[in-house]
Amino acid sequence: MENLTEKETAVVTAIQAGNNTVDSITTTIGFKKASVATLIGSLVKKSIVVKSDDGTVQLIAPATGPQAIISDPQQSIQDPGPNGSEIVTTAPGTENEPENNSPDLENVQAATSHPYTLIIPYLKAGASSTELKLALRTWEKHFPDIRVVVVGDREEWFSDQITYIPHTGHHIIKSCNGCAAPQTEQHPQADSTHKLLTALAIADIDGPIILSNDDIFLLRDITIEDISQGKYFNDLRDADTSKQTRFNRAQIDTADLLEISHMPTIRYGTHTPVLLDPHKVLDIIDRYDATERGLLFTSLYFNNYPPEGQPVKITGGQNDTILASIYRADVPPSVLEEVRNNRIFMNCNDAGWPSVRELLRNDYRTKSRFEI
Length: 372
Description:
Layout: H1 6-16, H2 22-29, H3 33-45, E1 49-51, E2 57-59, E3 116-122, H4 131-142, E4 146-152, E5 162-166, E6 172-173, E7 184-185, H5 188-202, E8 209-211, E9 216-218, H6 224-228, E10 231-232, E11 234-235, H7 246-260, E12 266-267, E13 274-276, H8 278-288, H9 297-304, E14 312-313, E15 323-326, H10 333-342, E16 345-348, H11 353-363
Parallel strand pairs: 3-4, 3-8, 4-5, 10-14, 15-16
Antiparallel strand pairs: 1-2, 6-7, 8-13, 9-16, 11-12
């Protein structure tokens, strides 16, 4: 067998012991989940491990020789998180149970010839109506050469052209200033990042990925350069500290961590699609413990790996030429017409969905290949 690193050997030993998912291997050897996903990818490239469509892994050949044996996987090198802590991948009291996101998959397909994979983390309870269906219709019309991966909840209309990965929600330990019995919460930012990690760990993804949301829509034909162009909103330090929302707290916490790392604090989250490198995604998740903390992932990513060229400022307002952010139910038809003709992307919140729905239903009546 090809010489392995100590960490690769630990993964091989865990597989030999009967662990065949990222979750079970993570629990066995104590590494971070992002590290395990990366190590499995390395072992696949070395033709030592094969990964099935359902995300399970197995050895291609018997692992023999001193490089492939560790007497006790629990004694292998531990992966410390920031400040020496380790990522908690199960809720308190469930250390011996697999996380509820283990890949009991109904429809995970092998990678296709499409050059880009579009990943959408999806929480049905957070959707107003048919946003995801209409969003995918806009992708089908304006940027069709993609493979679509949806992580989270499933809709009845999903066709076999969607690689669907079940994910019932990821909980993190809720901050309570040192209280004796901390609770857990499904933090939106941590949950979304965990869904992204789950997609990379389970789906057979080779090449760059596009990360988007169910309420981000394309309004005209685009190129990959429209997605990869750097976009920013403002500085993370511009957060309104008077508003005690989880998003504001996440913005402040993200800025604090970036400053500790001697990185800029640009707020890159603009609610538009972004182009990401899977290996860099895993690095950021691993480095900042990003599945276990409420952090703004795209700001972590692009402040560490800046986009090429000069990023453009995005507001989503009247003078923006790239994005239209619709946050009212009574947007005048003349404004919607301007949006349709002159913007590239459109997003909305719950209040703005009625305006967006009417525009999209009129322009995107035809089913996409992602619908049965």
